[in-house]
Amino acid sequence: MATHWEEFYSSHLPPIDFEDNRKLLQEFCERHNENNEKIVLITSGGTTVPLEHNTVRFVDNFSAGTRGAASAEYFLEHGYVTIFMHRLKSLEPFTRHFNGQKFMDMLDLNERGPNTTITVRPDGVDVLAPILSRYKAAQDNGRILYVNFTTVSDYFWLLRAVCECLAQFGARALLYLAAAVSDFYVPANQIPTHKMQSGGGPPNIQLQLVPKLLAPLVSLWVPLAFVVSFKLETDESILISKSRDALNKYKHKLVVGNMLQTRRTKVVFVTPDNNYELILSREQVHNGMEIEEIIVSNVVANHLDYIKIQKY
Ligand code: PMT
């Protein structure tokens, strides 16, 4: 009998750019595996649930992709090659620093007809240069691959394809599942082809449970990898118990618990042996430090210990 997650794949078609992405992933992973690199998959941003095939309306997930985009920069600094699997148009590493008008405000325009030039203001150079230098290093050396999803079904197809490529890395693969994945959806065979019309009265939309991919991911697809999932709650009293439930159920290595309201300054690491908090002090926040810097260095330390154990 097909499991819940197998049924999901058999009833949802892959996204149109799926084969292109699969080739890119295979090439990227083979090249870096030959060099014995450590690799991280970061999932980032929220998935959508379409309510029509020709989608005008959809259910969305709140995530901006801040956690994933910031973490990608720190993993690159720690020497990991990085697959950044993100929601289209959510935040991306490096460019995230220049959202809105920030980038335009760093530039001066010298209009001289065909000899018009654009220069970066001196204070802009101080901001841009270190970020541009890290961006170029990652890009020019082919150390980061960007792939994107929009719907929960895109996410499913892409995540499995990434795992198929990561399996060859064994314990050197780290999965850092920070995306906010829809827990509820409307199956493809139950949504209309065209835009719903209000003349038909209020629609009766029946949401169903999305299968948790962590189950096949941990037990079948990448059984040797170091898998980190995230748990978001809004009620602090259940955060640790829900995180531990997830760890017990899926048998992966680490759950990073966070509260919606305090996720920028505090997280809790729940491991098979214990739990401990990572908190940014007021001073660290004031100095512009990001919590992802300490999350990533702690995850990396745990992953390196795990690799050592696997070797013996
Ligand atoms: O992007 P930001 O605004 O910075 O916010 C970051 C964040 C709060 C989104 C992030 O830190 C976070 O907590 N992400 C997980 C949020 C979540 O909703 O998790 P969940 O309870 O739906 O799922 C738990 C884990 O199971 C996740 O790692 C998820 O990848 C995985 N999952 C979820 C659904 C599903 N069908 N299959 C899965 O494997």
Automatic annotation (TrEMBL):
InterPro entries (UniProt xref): CoaB-like_sf, DNA/pantothenate-metab_flavo_C
GO biological-process terms attached to the record: coenzyme A biosynthetic process
Pfam families: DFP
GO molecular function annotations of the record: catalytic activity
DNA/pantothenate metabolism flavoprotein C-terminal domain residues: 165-287
Coiled-coil residues: none
The organism's place on the tree of life at top rank: Eukaryota
Sequence similarity: Belongs to the PPC synthetase family.
Descriptive protein name: DNA/pantothenate metabolism flavoprotein C-terminal domain-containing protein
Taxonomic path: Eukaryota, Metazoa, Ecdysozoa, Arthropoda, Hexapoda
